[in-house]
Write a structure and sequence with these properties.
alpha/beta; DJ-1/PfpI domain-containing protein; 14 strands; 3 domains; Rossmann fold; 3-stranded antiparallel sheet; DJ-1/PfpI; INH-QAR
Length: about 300
């Protein structure tokens, strides 16, 4: 017998004991609330989906750990949960992590599908970041694909500046999201209508999950697994990987560190832009391929 039927029966028995056979108006309210709670609880349980069809959207110059960190968690999850995983790109040519310029190495992944023949039943799409996203010719096809496929997805996950790519599509307008803190100014400029959350390891808004930079994607994926498949499953997978999870989405010390670092650091050219508004003095000198950034006390510069 359901909870609300039991409650109604109890009220009826109590009234009968008092010599009454009518149910007061307030009893209908209680029964109604109980019924709604029962139905809502059942619906919540039934609608908590456990997706099995995952995919990643790649582009030249994607960040390796943005993809392989979350993917390793899914690989291990697939030992106990049947999963499918596809690799999407503009063409079927191997996609390399290397961006243009000397002094970098890279690895390639061979796509299984193109953006034009993505399976209709894809449930979860992962969008990584990377320096390749700074090239509009590379970014635009990915953003257009995400915009086209999003209505069919159950969940959209982004890592690092992958949120900047998605922001360019307009999908994040009016939603909360986060991104790589060292590329904050560039990333947030891609979506002026987005409610960007700086102090966050990851952010969830509806069916969209966005993470901070690079390694934060691992925490995001474990949080996603915990939410969809259970905390016990996520903990077991993290322990298996000997990974110490950050389970607090608002714990993001790097958001403050970026604006408080002292001493000389070397950043990629684009990363400098996100540090240019710090309250400390910033001196730069251009080397062959990078900017050497000296962050000193306020008002002090060194070149």
């Amino acid at each position: 017998m359901s909870t609300f039927k039991q409650l109604r029966l109890m009220i009826t028995i109590e009234l009968a004991a008092r010599g009454r056979d009518d149910l007061p108006i307030w009893s209908s309210y209680i029964v109604g609330v109980s019924a709604r709670s029962s139905v809502e609880g059942r619906m919540s349980s039934e609608t908590k989906s456990t997706p099995t069809k995952f995919g990643v959207a790649l582009f030249p110059g994607f960040q390796a750990l943005d993809v392989f960190g979350p993917l390793d968690a899914l690989n291990n999850l697939s030992d106990s949960t049947p999963l499918e995983f596809i690799v999407l790109a503009a063409t079927l040519d191997p996609v390399n992590t290397k961006v243009n310029g000397p002094g970098r190495i890279g690895q390639s992944i061979v796509p299984t599908h193109t953006f034009d023949n993505c399976p209709e039943d894809l449930e979860v799409l992962l969008v990584p970041g990377g320096f390749g996203a700074r090239d509009s010719a590379i970014l635009t096809p990915v953003a257009e694909f995400v915009k086209r496929i999003f209505p069919k997805l159950q969940y959209l996950l982004t890592v690092c500046t992958g949120s900047a790519i998605v922001a360019r599509s307009g999908i994040l307008d009016g939603k909360r999201a986060t991104s790589n803190k060292r590329s904050w100014e560039w990333a947030t400029a891609q979506g002026p209508a987005v409610h960007w959350v700086r102090q966050a390891r990851w952010v969830v808004d509806g069916n969209i999950w966005t993470s901070s930079g690079v390694s934060a994607g691992i925490d995001l994926m474990f949080a996603f697994i915990a939410d969809r498949y259970g905390e016990g499953v996520a903990k077991q997978l993290a322990d298996r990987a000997e990974y110490v999870r950050n389970t607090d989405s608002s714990s993001d010390p790097l958001a403050l560190q970026v604006t408080k670092e002292c001493g000389e650091q070397v950043y990629e050219r684009d990363s400098f832009l996100s540090c240019s508004t710090t309250p400390w003095g910033v001196g730069i000198r251009e080397t062959s391929h990078k900017w050497a950034l000296s962050i000193l006390s306020a008002g002090s510069f060194r070149t």
